[in-house]
Amino acid sequence: MLKKILLTLIIFTGLAAYAGENFLNTVVLENNDGAYSIVLRSDEVAKVKKDVEAPDKIVLTLKGISQSPDVNTLYKNTPEVSGLVIQNSGNNEVKIFINAPDISKANIIFETPNSAPILVGEAFEEEKIVWSVISIALLLLVMRSARSISAEPEQKDINKVIKEREIALYRNFQKEVASMPSMNYKLKSYKKHVLKGETIRNYESKLTRV
User: Fold this and answer.
1) Which of 30, 135, 189, 208 is the most buried (most CB within 10 A)?
2) Are strands 115-119 and 107-112 parallel, antiparallel or unpaired?
């Protein structure tokens, strides 16, 4: 059971390491009827933290992702954008600084080759569900393993108690047998009394004859 748990942890560790090879390829800033959308095109969905410094100034921190050497920035109907800077912070972390009117209300969308566009909020919910299922599965495996380990000593104790009881019963039986009077002794005593009685009767009959 412990081997299964270790194998599961190794698999998920390997998946996490593989997920570290995620690259941010393009950042698209578009304005649709006054509503901004920030589209992040990458290999896989990454964790995003949005810090609002002002209504027109935000900082996006992306974790589990690196900036591609030839990352592109595209602007669609956004003439009022005053700044967009992409900074590779290292350790699989990228920061994006954006200045634009009401940019704090912008939607953040991930586009990856293997999935349809995903809103950051939806991605977080899916991630929470997945990791909750994984955590529950690992917890059940650990509990099952702990029960198996704790059950073995208990079984040994039961067997020991049964064996001790059997030994005690056997010893009591030996004592009872030793304390019981011997049947042979009774028979021998009975024979002695009979022979003695016969001898006395024979002696008396002889005296009578004389």
Assistant:
1) 30
2) antiparallel
Whether 45 is covered by a domain: the verdict is: yes
> What does the H/E/C string look like for the chain?
CHHHHHHHHHHHHHHHHHHCCCEEEEEEEEEECCEEEEEEEECCCCEEEEEEEECCEEEEEEECCEEEEEEEEEEECCCCCCEEEEEECCCCEEEEEEECCCHHHCEEEEEECCEEEEEHHHHHHHHHHHHHHHHHHHHHHHHHHHHHHHHHHHHHHHHHHHHHHHHHHHHHHHHHHHHCCCHHHHHHHHHHHHHHHHHHHHHHHHHHHC
Q: Decide if 157 is inside a domain.
A: no
Residue type at 112? Answer: T
Amino acid making up residue 133: V
Contact 51, 61 (CB under 8 A): yes
pLDDT digits (tens, 9 = 90+) for 159-169: 777 888 888 88
Q: Which residue, 169, 55, 152, 65, is CA-closest to 110?
A: 65
- Count how many residues are written for the chain: 210
For the chain, the domain total comes to 1
| Cβ neighbours of 24 (radius 10 Å) | 22
Asked whether residue 149 is assigned to any structural domain, the reply reads no
Residue 21 confidence class, pLDDT cut points 50, 70, 90: confident
The domain in which residue 41 lies consists of 2-134
Q: Is residue 148 part of a domain?
A: no
